[in-house]
TrEMBL record:
Oligomeric and partner information: Identified in the spliceosome C complex. Component of the PRP19-CDC5L splicing complex composed of a core complex comprising a homotetramer of PRPF19, CDC5L, PLRG1 and BCAS2, and at least three less stably associated proteins CTNNBL1, CWC15 and HSPA8. Interacts (via its WD40 repeat domain) directly with CDC5L (via its C-terminal); the interaction is required for mRNA splicing but not for spliceosome assembly. Component of the minor spliceosome, which splices U12-type introns. Within this complex, interacts with CRIPT. Also interacts directly in the complex with BCAS2 and PRPF19.
Cited CDD domains: WD40 (cd00200)
Family statement: Belongs to the WD repeat PRL1/PRL2 family.
Designated name of the protein: Pleiotropic regulator 1
Keywords: Repeat, WD repeat
Coiled coil: none
Length: 485
């Protein structure tokens, strides 16, 4: 029975292969038909790429000297009658200023004149392509083609000099990993949230504890302070999003809707809406006053680890563990663009404070993008750890913090890494507690605050004694040219 079954299956496969062979054997050696439109497009692209640098010179020659058009307009109308040819010349060729003139000459002279005219046209194009060539220069008469200028290599801008940063203060007080930071718009205090379920408010100048807010029943993962209201917003792994009234230090609103832990939140700078994102693969837009879930932004297929909001389109940008970055239309509540350049999870997105750009961080690369379409600008390579957080200031300093405690400082415009170091671990902490979970600059951009796994908050400042002589820019463009962006 088994032999019969094997034989029948083999026969069926053989017949199927034979049918396929018979179907395609008639034209398998033929080339596909040439699409004329695509062929013209290919040639135009190749022409522009190869001869783009000299195309304007040819056009200028044809327009300025009237090499082809003037001769074509001056000589074309020729009436031949036996041994004589009547040529109608335009006013530009005769120089008379009138409508034209009629000249009669022998046919042999006409042929010689036509040959001479075509010869002059070719030599004028050659002379136009030669450097420092005058109108009567005959040094290029033997040339047959235009001389092509080689393309210049792209210039790499030199990075700006930035002072190195150094540790200024270590603040202790939390009993768990510090997971989020938010600086008050007045630049007087900042808030932190941690795994001990407590939100603490610290004086920015002295580093002293001012207030502790309790209410979350799990790790606090996100904080934001309103610039228009006395409100502090928080979210955490307990699926709760809370609005705290800082005049009474109490929770006045809850925003219910997330199905799992909430990892990030952002306030819109001009509209009273709040954006949150989390482990349920969604980002949600809330009306700050009515607590209504205005939009549920769906499309990501994994945890949405970071969300940012800005006043201009795209107003909402999210980064997810599904390795994508999405740009959202806030009015429609729909995704307008999905950036799939990253190969690993995107855990942090930061907006530049003055430029219309943003950066996204992943273990493979930090990538810069231009709004509103999300045009790719460049890769910033070198921070090979899991990058949990980033911060940028108006001076063009981009900082990235890794899961292993490494901090990299970059020049935003060029991607030059001007400083890197391992964040110091507090005495008594394990080496594995060296992760940096959140960071942000204060409102002046002169102080960098980091939240770390050794349960401390660290404040960094620029080294005021440093200068371009003591800390020169080690810029080597010959190495950068060989890098593949």
């Amino acid at each position: 029975m088994e032999d019969v079954q094997k034989h029948s299956v083999h026969t069926l496969i053989f017949r199927s292969l034979k049918r396929t062979h018979d179907l395609f054997v008639s034209n398998q050696g033929n080339l596909p038909e040439i699409d004329e439109k695509l062929e013209k497009l290919r040639r135009s692209i190749k022409t522009r790429d190869s001869y783009g640098l000299v195309a304007h010179r040819v056009v200028k020659t044809l327009d300025g000297k009237k090499s082809d058009k003037a001769h074509a307009a001056d000589k074309p109308l020729a009436i031949t009658d036996g041994s004589t040819t009547t040529t109608i010349l335009s006013s530009t060729s005769t120089g008379t200023g009138g409508a034209g003139a009629v000249v009669k000459h022998n046919a042999g002279d006409a042929r010689r004149g036509a040959d001479k005219m075509s010869f002059n046209t070719n030599t004028s194009l050659v002379r136009a392509s030669l450097p420092n060539s005058g109108g009567n220069n005959t040094s290029g008469l033997g040339a047959t083609n235009l001389q092509l200028i080689p393309k210049k290599a792209p210039t790499i801008p030199k990075p700006m000099w930035h002072a190195p940063w150094k540790l200024s203060r270590v603040i202790s007080g939390h009993l768990g990993w510090v997971r989020c930071i938010a600086v008050e718009p007045g630049n007087e205090w900042f808030a932190t949230g941690a795994g001990d379920r407590v939100i603490k408010i610290w004086d920015l100048a002295s580093g002293k504890l001012k207030l502790s807010l309790t209410g979350h029943v799990s790790t606090v993962r996100g904080l934001a302070v309103s610039a228009k209201h006395p409100y502090l917003f928080s979210c955490g792994e307990d699926r709760q999003v809370k609005c705290w009234d800082l005049e009474y230090n109490k929770v006045i609103r809850h925003y219910h809707g997330h199905l799992s832990a909430v990892y990030s939140l952002a306030l819109h700078p001009t509209i009273d809406v709040l954006a949150t994102s989390g482990r349920d693969s969604t980002a949600r837009i809330w009306d700050m006053r009515t607590k209504a879930n205005v939009h549920t932004l769906t499309g990501h297929t994994n945890t949405v680890a970071s969300v940012v909001a800005q006043a201009t389109n795209p107003q909402i940008i999210t980064g997810s563990h599904d390795s994508t970055v999405r740009l959202w239309d806030l009015a429609a509540g729909k995704s307008v663009c999905t950036l799939t350049n990253h190969k690993k999870s995107v855990r942090s997105i930061v907006l530049h404070p003055t430029l219309y750009m943003f950066a996204s961080a992943s273990p493979d690369n930090i990538k810069q993008w231009r709004c509103p379409e999300g045009n790719f600008i460049q890769n910033i390579s070198g921070h090979t750890a899991i990058v949990n957080c980033m911060a940028a200031n108006a001076d063009g300093v981009l900082v990235s913090g890794g899961d292993n405690g490494t901090m990299f400082f970059w020049d935003w415009r060029t991607g030059y890494n001007f400083q890197r170091f391992q964040a110091p671990v507090q005495p008594g902490s394990m080496d594995s507690e060296a992760g940096i979970f959140a960071m942000c600059f204060d409102q002046s951009g002169t102080r960098l605050i980091t939240a770390e796994a050794d349960k401390t908050i660290k404040v960094y400042k620029e080294d005021e004694e440093a200068s371009e002589e003591t800390n020169p820019v080690n810029w080597r463009p010959e190495l950068l040219k060989r890098r593949k962006f």
